Amino acid sequence: MIKEQRQERILSELAKRGSVGVVELSKLLGVSEATVRRDLGELAGHGLLRRTHGGAALVERGEELPYHAKAAAYLPEKRRIGAAAAALLEPGQVIGCTGGTTVAQAARLLQGKRLVVVTNALNIALELAGSEETDVIMTGGALRSRSLETVGHIAERSFREFCIDVALLGADGISIKEGITTYHLAEAHANRVLVERSREVWVLADHSKLGKVTPAVIGPVSRMTRLITDAGAPDDFVASLREQGIDVVVV
Amino acid sequence: MIKEQRQERILSELAKRGSVGVVELSKLLGVSEATVRRDLGELAGHGLLRRTHGGAALVERGEELPYHAKAAAYLPEKRRIGAAAAALLEPGQVIGCTGGTTVAQAARLLQGKRLVVVTNALNIALELAGSEETDVIMTGGALRSRSLETVGHIAERSFREFCIDVALLGADGISIKEGITTYHLAEAHANRVLVERSREVWVLADHSKLGKVTPAVIGPVSRMTRLITDAGAPDDFVASLREQGIDVVVV
DNA sequence: ATCGACATGATTGAAAATGAGCGAACCGCG
DNA sequence: CGCGGTTCGCTCATTTTCAATCATGTCGAT
C-alpha cells in the first residue's frame, strides 16, 4: 500500500469516528506503529488532524484558522489595547465591532457586560456567544474566510438598522494622509457603513499599523474619535493626531 | 482506547443521562477509577461538565455553553447521518442549513464541495469558513447562545432573498402528529422561513428525536421530503413516514 | 551493477498516561 | 452531633506512547 492511500485511509477513518489510536491504525493498515506515527505527524503538519497521545483527533474549527487569537502577532500589545477599549465602554451602550484579532481581544473582555454588540465578524460573535448579559447581533452577509467578516449588501443593510454609540474598528493601516485602510474592498465598504452609523469611532491598532497604507479606504483619520494603540507608536504620529483633536490612548 | 475517545464517550454518556458516576464509568470504559477521576477533572476544567461527589453532572444553565454537551450525545450516529446527507448533495446546489450539532457534522463534510451554503448558524459557518470552494452566506440576526443560531427579522429577511435547493434541518423533535419541532420559538420561526424558501427539506435527526415533541413547531412532517436518521429508529415510525411518501434514509 | 532517495521497521531513552495505595474530606444515617 | 463507608486528591511505580536515530529494503536513474 502506497503512503498516500494509507494516509487517505487514516483521514477517512478519522472522519468516520472522530478519533483514532495508533495501535488501532497499525493493525488496521498492517504497518508498524512507527509508520503510523510518521503519517500522523505528517498529516498534523498539514493541519489535517490534531495529534494526541495515543492517536489523533479531528481538528477543531477555529483552532487552525489564520486569525486564531493565540497565533496573533503582537499579542501582548493587542491584549492591552483590547483591555483599554473594554474599560472605556459603559453599560447599556450599543457597540459595533468589525473583525480583526485586536477587536477580538477587546470583545473577549466584554463578556458579562450589559451591552448590545452589533458585528459582521464571526470571531467576535463567537467570543461573546457564551455571555448571558450581552446581546449579540450579527449582520449577516457573504463570509470571507480570511478575516471571518461577512460583507455585501446584507451586512450593510443590517448595520443601517442600528444607531451605534461606539464603533470598534480594527484597521490594517492608519495613515494621516490616506486615512484608515484595510486590505479588502468589500470589508472596507461594510466597515464604512458601520462608521456612518456610529456616533463615536474608536480604532484599535497596534503600532505596526501606524503610518501604513493598505489598498481599501474606510475613511479619513478625522472621522476617528479615538485611537487606542501601544507604546511602540511614534511620538510625532501621536502628536499629529492629537492636534486634530483625536483622543489617542497609548497603553 | 485513547484518551480522546474515552472522554468523548464520557460526555456522550453524560449528555444522554444527565449525570454519571465514577464507578459506573470505570466499569463501562474498562479503566480504573483514578483515570475516570482524572478525565472528569480535565473535562470540568474545560467547563464541559460539573464535578459532583461520586461522579459528574451537566453544567448548569448559565456560564457555559451547553452546546458542547449536546454535541457529544450520540456523536457516532450524528457523524453517520451527517456523512449520508453530505453524500447526497450535488455540486452547484444551494443549501440552507439550520443550526444543530447533527447538521454541523454534515457541514464539516461539505468542505471543498462547490456549493452555496446559506445558514443562520454560527457553528455551521465556522465549519465551512476554511473552505475555498464553498460560498457561505450568513443570514445575520440576534444570536442565541444556546444553539448558536441567529434569529429575528434580519435572519428571516435574509433567507427570503434566496431560492434554496435543499434545506438541511436539525430538529429537536419529530412527531407524526405534531410535526417537526424545536425548543425555541424564534428559532422555529426562522427555520420556517427557510423551509418556505426550499424546494426540498431534509431533516437530520438521530433516533432520540423521533416521536418526541418540543414546544415550537417548524412544520408538519408532510413538508419534509427526506429524513436521515440512524438505525435506532423504530420500524413503525419509519414505515409510517414512508407511507406518506417521505424518503427515509437509515444509516 | 552502483548509487542515491525514499519509505519502512526496529531500537532506545524520555515523557505521558495509567493504576494502586493511602490519609483526608465528604456523604448519608442514626 | 458522631460514625462508617465512600469518594477524593495525592504520590509513586508501572505501563504505554513518543520522538529520534539507525539499519534495511525498494525503486528508479545513471
How would you characterize this protein structure?
The structure is a homodimer of 251-residue chains. With 251 residues, chain A is of the alpha/beta class. Chain A has 2 domains: 3-57, Winged helix-like DNA-binding domain superfamily/Winged helix DNA-binding domain (Arc Repressor Mutant, subunit A, Orthogonal Bundle), CATH 1.10.10.10; 69-250, Rossmann fold (3-Layer(aba) Sandwich), CATH 3.40.50.1360. Chain A is 37% helix and 24% strand. The first copy, chain A, is built from 9 helices and 15 strands. The first copy, chain A, has helices at residues 3-17, 22-29, 33-45, 75-88, 101-108, 122-128, 153-160, 185-196, 235-243, and strands at 19-21, 50-52, 55-57, 94-97, 116-119, 135-138, 141-144, 149-151, 164-169, 173-175, 179-182, 198-204, 216-219, 226-229, 247-250. A 7-stranded parallel β-sheet of chain A has the order 6-5-4-9-12-14-15, with helices on both faces. In chain A, a hairpin with a 3-residue loop joins strand 10 and strand 11 (179-182). The model of chain A has no long low-confidence stretch (mean pLDDT 92). Chain A binds chain B through residues 15-22, 52-55, 57, 61-62, 64-65, 122, 125-126, 128-132, 135-143, 145, 148, 150, 154-155, 158, 161, and chain B through 1-5, 8, 62-65, 75-76, 79-80, 83, 108-109, 122, 125-132, 135-143, 145, 148, 150, 154-155, 158, 161. The structure holds a DNA duplex (30 and 30 nucleotides).
